[in-house]
Design brief:
Helices cover 7% and strands 53% of the residues. With 232 residues, it is mostly beta strands.
Length: 232
């Protein structure tokens, strides 16, 4: 396991060749936090400073200018794209916005589960999977029904340990758990849950760049080796 960052980025977004981050810097004279934007090329292992616009395009797609003008807070929201280019934006408050292929806000509303806010999002067709940390669950939001129609975990179950984010690759969801310090894999064909990788600290994010795996732990961001944290 190779450490790439030794601090917690304000946001991290996958890119076809690596990932882009927002790095927190010192506050200015008015007490406002300064930030910088960096691109980590995992093919060449070159790190370079980039513009804010480069980060936003990676996160929100080609219509990033129109979307960013409407969301205001471009840092704390989670974004995922549906197969037809629809952008789904979820905020920590529980509000969700759906933007069409032109960057126009098509729908907005509160997305809660038992009065708890949702974090992160991963598409499955037209539907969305989200993590609910305070319910120890992940849920599926059915866009046609405009409601949550399926849940895995929940309450005092031990299926997940405070899930913070999720991502989807092929027919599986990968759920990052802060309390249980592992990544759970959910098979979307039969909804079975297994432990994919285990760590000795909280797991906050997981994504892939080609065949390379990147994980964000409480101590920083790491590039995983083939067997790092894998169940024996």
């Amino acid at each position: 396991m190779k450490q790439i960052l030794d601090y917690m980025p304000l946001d991290i977004v996958p890119h076809p060749d690596g990932f882009v981050i927002i790095q927190p810097n010192e506050k200015d004279s008015n007490g406002k936090l300064r930030v910088s934007f960096w691109f980590y090329d995992l093919k060449s292992m070159v790190v370079q400073k980039v513009r804010k616009s480069f980060f936003n395009e990676c996160k929100f797609g080609p219509n990033y200018q129109d979307i960013v003008m409407q969301v205001n807070d471009y840092i704390s929201c989670a974004v995922c794209e549906n197969p037809r280019g629809i952008m789904n934006v979820i905020f920590p408050t529980g509000e969700m916005g759906i933007f069409d292929t032109r960057g126009t806000l098509a729908w907005t509303g509160d997305l809660l589960y038992h009065d708890c806010t949702l974090r992160s999002c991963a598409p499955e067709g037209k539907n969305l999977w989200c993590a609910v940390p305070d319910q120890n669950a992940i849920v599926r939001y059915n866009k046609k029904l405009q409601r949550i129609d399926f849940r895995i975990g929940g309450g005092k179950t031990t299926t997940f340990g405070r899930p913070m984010s999720l991502s989807r690759y092929e027919k599986n969801l990968y759920v990052c758990c802060k309390a249980s310090q592992n990544i759970k894999k959910v098979d979307l064909k039969n909804y079975t849950v297994t432990t994919y990788r285990e760590f000795e600290e909280p797991v906050l994010r997981y994504f892939r760049v080609g065949k390379q795996e990147v994980v964000v732990l409480s101590s920083g961001t790491y590039l995983l080796d083939e067997r790092d944290g894998k169940k024996s």
